[in-house]
Amino acid sequence: MLQIALVLVGVAALQAPAPTRSGTVPASTLAPPEAAEDVLPLDVGERQALSVTERLGRSLTFYSRVLPILARYKLAELDLEQRCADEEECAAEYSELDEWGSDKLRDAILELQGFYVKSGQVLSTRVDLFAKPYCDKLQVLQEGLAPIPTDVVKEVVRRELCGDGTLDELFSDFEEKPLGCASIAQVHAATLLDGRRVAVKVQRPGAKPLLRADVANLKRFAKLLADALPVDYYVVFSELGDVLEGELDFLQEAQAMEKLHAAVRFRPDGRAAPAPLRVPRAVPGLATTKVLVMEFVEGVSLNNLAAEAKKRGVEPGSPEAKILGSRIVRALGEAYARMIFGAGFVHGDPHPGNVFVQPGGDVALLDCGQTKQLSAADVERLGAVIARLQAYRAAPADRAALAALGDAVRAYGVELRPRDVDELYEPTKEAAALDDDACLAAIAVTLFGDKSVDEIPGGYSADELSADSPLKRLKSFPQALVLMGRAAVIIRGIASKLEVNYSLADAWEQAAREREPGLPPPWARPEAQAAEDSGEPRLRDLWRAVGRRTRERCGAVAQRVLPAWAKKRIAARIARRL
Question: Fewer CB in 10 Å around end: N or C, the chain?
Answer without folding.
Answer: C
